[in-house]
Amino acid sequence: MGADNPFFHRGAxxxxxxxxxxxxxxxxxLGLLRNGQSVSLIGPRRIGKSxxxxxxxxxxxxxxxxxxxxYSLFVMLDCQELAGSPPEEVxxxxxxxxxxxxxxxxxxxxxxxxxxTYRALDRALQQVYRQSVSVVVLLDExxxxxxxxxxxxxxxxRLRGLTTKYGLAYLxxxxxxxxxxxxxxAVLSSPFLNIFVTVPLGLxxxxxxxxxx
Length: 213
Prior knowledge:
single chain
């Protein structure tokens, strides 16, 4: 009889029960996010960055750090979809993700009549903040957002401003460190970059490798 192949050919791992390892990186990342610290996850292509971000969206994974609903809302955006989007589309997708997470957590948030605006996103975050709920925005493939020519330093300054007003934290995933991305993409203003702590993602430890097999 043939056995089921437990390995994935391509694509991120989406089911928590299929995820293996990364315990140290998970503990470090969630510990930082719990304190409102934004995190930059970096690692080479196909090392598992997207899988890790998706794993962190599962509430039971975050429960030990009180980052599960209703204490915290995690909103994940795939920046591949935002590579050519204007600021309004980015704000709208962030708002949509926030409202979906709030609904799932049973939080009451009034919807805006003009969802594709910074003001609508700001108003929703204010409502969440008043309920003592933290918000983390996960940005996968962050290089593509940084390279978006429709986004200006003012856009990223606004994203930074949300961390000050509402304790919002960001978790980005990229192949290169943010300072290296900023060297090529002028839109990334230094105030936005200064809020991040870097967490490298490398090869599995020997113990994790044996667990995987």
